[in-house]
Amino acid sequence: MGETSNGLRSYVYLRIHGFETHHQVTQHLGLEPTQAWNLGDPYMEGKVPRLQTRACGRWSVGDQRFSPVDENEQLDALIACLLPYQARLQTTPPSWMKSLVIVHETDSCNADMLITVAEVAFAAAISADFQLDVYSLPLESTP
């Protein structure tokens, strides 16, 4: 996992939920998801893995691994990939909730992010919210 010069790591993705099956989203958009699951799908999780069921469905597209690339560059690249699907994203059923998610991890107490007017305009055009997940981690001590 890489870091930018200010100790930041981040990733961004488009998330949709509120559908009956994630296949509906794929069919409507004509776009394959990076990740998708339905309400009630089983999965393994925990320190001692145990079988659980999904509390909600999720369809998402975007690289959900930490990257050394600035989150604005990642968001702009994601938006560029989504532009051909903008008209379809604008015509999703009202029950489908869309979010542009930015996960931002930093070792600084001053975690700042800039969301540009163009990024806000795209989110507004497709009726998507922004979800900002900011994690401030303690600095590692050096000898």
- Helix percent reads 10-25%
User: How many beta-strand segments?
Assistant: 7
| Biggest sheet: strand arrangement | 2-5-1-6-7
Uncertain ranges: 1-5
Question: What oligomeric state is this?
Answer: single chain
Anisotropy-based shape: flat
How much β-strand is present in the residues? Answer: 25-35%
Cα distance, first to last residue? 22 Å
SSE string: EHEEEEHHEHE
Q: What does the largest sheet look like? A: 5 strands, mixed
| Tally of contiguous helical segments | 4
Radius of gyration: 17 Å
Mean pLDDT over the full residue set:
85
Structural class: alpha+beta
Explain what the structure shows.
- The two termini are about 20 Å apart.
- About 20% of the residues are buried.
- This protein is α+β, with helices and mostly antiparallel strands.
- Helix content is about 25%, strand content about 30%.
- The chain contains four helices and seven strands, in the order βαββββααβαβ.
- A hairpin with a 4-residue loop joins β3 and β4.
- The protein has a five-stranded mixed β-sheet with strand order 2-5-1-6-7. The protein has a two-stranded antiparallel sheet with strand order 3-4.
